[in-house]
Specification:
The chain is α+β, with helices and mostly antiparallel strands. It is built from seven helices and twelve strands.
């Protein structure tokens, strides 16, 4: 399932395991709890008025969400789901518990500041960049977050489908398949079922900077 994290939500936190593709909450739901990813990762998706779903963010073990909705009572701005081909485990603290515990709220705020800094320092899917740039950045980000060194490359379990990967970087599934096939042919990556290995990391970094 991937790396795991210790919960900062304390002894009053419960836990929930999400099956592959299962939703934790839906966009527009009233907030009932604050969460932290313990194992695997979850995706936050946004659905447009015309019904198109896109991935806004991927949350890794240790990440906290959705604190802001819990604090001000506003509806969840996103839907939270496990990836389509992998489970995830999250810690759960009820909203009432959070509001009664200022130290817990402070710990959550501190963690979310760290997450915001990480997001700002790591560009993945800027619409102004070419698709090759966005895809290489996405794969490098996943490798840095989840990967292990294998020889000269980095290998990790790709818990996203090709469609989810396309939604995350703002392109079509067909484009992701075409680019990955080309990169396999050029020995930049190796894709073996659910595992992806970045073989030529240096070249992928070169592609990621070619904005």
């Amino acid at each position: 399932m991937g790396i795991a994290a210790d919960s900062l939500l304390g002894d009053r936190a419960g836990s929930k395991t999400l099956q592959a593709g299962e939703a934790l909450f839906w966009q527009g739901d009233s907030p009932t709890a604050v969460y932290q990813v313990l194992e695997g990762f979850v995706k936050l998706t946004w659905t447009s008025p015309c019904g198109r779903e896109t991935i806004s963010e991927l949350l890794l073990p240790g990440d906290v969400f959705d604190l802001l909705s819990c604090l001000d009572g506003s509806p969840y701005p996103f839907t939270c789901k496990a990836p389509s081909n992998s489970t995830a485990k999250v810690a759960v603290v009820a909203r009432g518990v959070l509001l009664e515990d200022p130290q817990l709220a402070w710990r959550c705020q501190t963690r979310m500041v760290q997450q915001l800094r990480r997001q700002r320092s790591t560009r993945v899917a800027s619409p102004a960049d070419r698709v090759e740039v966005r895809l290489s950045r996405a794969l490098l980000w996943l490798a840095d977050s989840l990967g292990k060194k294998v020889g000269q490359g980095i290998s990790f379990q790709l818990q996203l489908t090709r469609q989810e990967l396309a939604e995350w970087i703002g392109t079509t599934t067909e484009t992701v398949i075409r680019l990955c096939s080309d990169w396999r042919r050029r020995s930049l990556i190796q894709w073996d079922r659910h595992f992806l290995t970045l073989i030529n990391v240096q070249q992928l970094h070169f592609l990621s900077d070619a904005a």
